[in-house]
Amino acid sequence: MRHFILSLALVCSAFVSAAEITNIAAAPEQVSPLLPGIDAPALQLKDKSGKTVDLATRYKENITVLVIYRGGWCPYCSRQLAGIQEIEPQLVKMGAQIIAIAPDSPEALAKSTIESPHYQLLSDNEMRMSQALGLAYFLDDKTALAYRNKLGVNFVDFEGNDKVALPVPAVFVVDKKGLIQFQYANPNYKVRLDESVLLAAVKAASQL
């Protein structure tokens, strides 16, 4: 299998990461998210302080609401994270924890105002988790140019072209055995899962 290297320079951060490309779609509509009944990827990722977090261990602790978002620079993602934070007490009461993962560096995550023992942000700056979940895709050239000009993203050369990858935003509910019980992913990043649906999904998972 051929292996390629993509450097990702993220918004609001000078941190540059190299991502090994194994499963990145050509467009958001072409991603293939993992479905319920499949084991969730049990990778090791960094938190905002740079500490390694083992997802396999975290899954065993509680039902996990796994949120995949595009980055702290995305206003739609910020609103989603804030909305989930509002229902955090209800989720915790049902025995759930929240783990939100983005391609941001740990340094960028440290700028977040979310601070809770039940709500953790993790860095997927090598896009390993996004690829394992089947959510990663390349931005088209037009979007890449707009992001560069309007958001200040620094792109690097990839096989003669400027490229960057992002995850399709998604929410998974993972049980204590590490099995996905619920999945929502939408290629339209402006449309996010309603909190009431998430509460219902966690309630159903807690009764299994």
From TrEMBL:
Coiled coil: none annotated. It is an enzyme of class 1 (oxidoreductase). It catalyses: a hydroperoxide + [thioredoxin]-dithiol = an alcohol + [thioredoxin]-disulfide + H2O. The keyword Nucleotide-binding does not apply. Residues 1-18 form the signal peptide. The keyword Oxidoreductase applies. Keywords: Antioxidant, Disulfide bond, Oxidoreductase, Peroxidase, Redox-active center, Signal. Its EC number is 1.11.1.24. Thiol-specific peroxidase that catalyzes the reduction of hydrogen peroxide and organic hydroperoxides to water and alcohols, respectively. Plays a role in cell protection against oxidative stress by detoxifying peroxides and as sensor of hydrogen peroxide-mediated signaling events. Belongs to the peroxiredoxin family. BCP/PrxQ subfamily. This is thioredoxin-dependent peroxiredoxin. It comes from Pseudoalteromonas piscicida.
